[in-house]
């Protein structure tokens, strides 16, 4: 039997933004570490090793540790979640794509740029197949990949990713949304750093 209090809390973790709200953090703090870490085994015994809910539970637990900057546990759980997802999901879906993107972010946060690039690209491909090329959820992994290229001084690639992300966000949120404004600021900063700026139009 899966403890209902753990399920209730994990379901409220925002896998789309790697955030754990204060109320959720407070509830999680009341659960002991051993209980949290045994959750995957509890779910596995209840539902089986190839069940989609196991992949989702592992994903949310990974996001929890990621939000706490416990990268060793987060990376381990992301890898388990993705391994389970490959067996559990019969076709691409948004959960799987977001899982891949969050794992890429965990690698990026540890400066494992080579693997992070591969994972981000896989996340983008998964999400395109699952939800289409213009869905707003694609904006984040595109921007994340842009950040990775920016940090490696690959200005043209960073600019391309940011542009693609902005196009999606403008369509979904409108040109004046704060996320769009921040994205344009990042794009402008990349263009200023690029040696070929003289050939680019003013933003």
Strand fraction equals under 5%
Low-confidence stretches: 197-203
Largest sheet: none
Which structural class best describes the helix and strand composition? mainly alpha
Mean pLDDT across every amino acid position? 86
CATH superfamily of the largest domain: Tetratricopeptide repeat domain
Shape: elongated
CATH architectural group of the largest domain: Alpha Horseshoe
Q: Estimate nothing, just give the exact number of structural domains.
A: 2
Question: Could you give the count of β-strands?
Answer: 0
Share of helix, binned: over 70%
How is this fold's topology laid out?
Blueprint: H1 4-10, H2 22-29, H3 33-37, H4 39-47, H5 52-67, H6 71-88, H7 94-109, H8 113-131, H9 139-151, H10 155-173, H11 178-193
Helix pairs in contact: 4-5, 5-6, 5-7, 6-7, 7-8, 7-9, 8-9, 9-10, 10-11
Structure description:
With 203 residues, this protein is mostly helical. It has two domains: 1-112, Alpha Horseshoe (Serine Threonine Protein Phosphatase 5, Tetratricopeptide repeat); 133-197, Serine Threonine Protein Phosphatase 5, Tetratricopeptide repeat (Alpha Horseshoe), CATH 1.25.40. The protein contains eleven helices and no strands. Helix 10 (155-173) runs antiparallel to helix 11 (178-193). The longest helix is centred in the middle third of the chain and has 19 residues, at 113-131. The N and C termini lie far apart (57 Å). Residues 197-203 have low confidence and may be disordered.
Features:
2 domains, 0% strand, elongated, 11 helices, Serine Threonine Protein Phosphatase 5, Tetratricopeptide repeat, mainly alpha, 203 residues
């Amino acid at each position: 039997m899966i403890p209902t209090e753990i399920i209730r809390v994990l379901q409220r973790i925002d896998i789309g933004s790697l955030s754990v709200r204060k109320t959720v953090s407070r509830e999680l703090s009341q659960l002991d570490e051993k209980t949290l870490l045994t959750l995957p085994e509890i779910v596995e015994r209840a539902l089986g090793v190839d069940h989609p809910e196991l992949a989702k539970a592992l994903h949310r637990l990974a996001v929890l540790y990621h939000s706490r900057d416990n990268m060793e546990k987060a990376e381990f759980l992301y890898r388990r979640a993705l391994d389970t997802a490959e067996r559990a999901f019969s076709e691409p879906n948004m959960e799987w794509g977001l899982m891949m993107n969050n794992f890429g972010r965990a690698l990026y946060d540890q400066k494992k740029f080579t693997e992070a690039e591969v994972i981000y690209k896989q996340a983008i491909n998964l999400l395109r197949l699952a939800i289409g090329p213009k869905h707003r959820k694609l904006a984040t992994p595109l921007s994340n990949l842009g950040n990775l290229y920016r940090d490696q001084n690959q200005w043209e690639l960073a600019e391309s990713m940011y542009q693609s992300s902005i196009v999606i966000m403008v369509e979904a949120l409108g040109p004046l949304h704060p996320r769009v404004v921040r994205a344009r600021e990042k794009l402008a900063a990349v263009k200023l750093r690029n040696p070929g700026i003289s050939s680019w139009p003013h933003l």
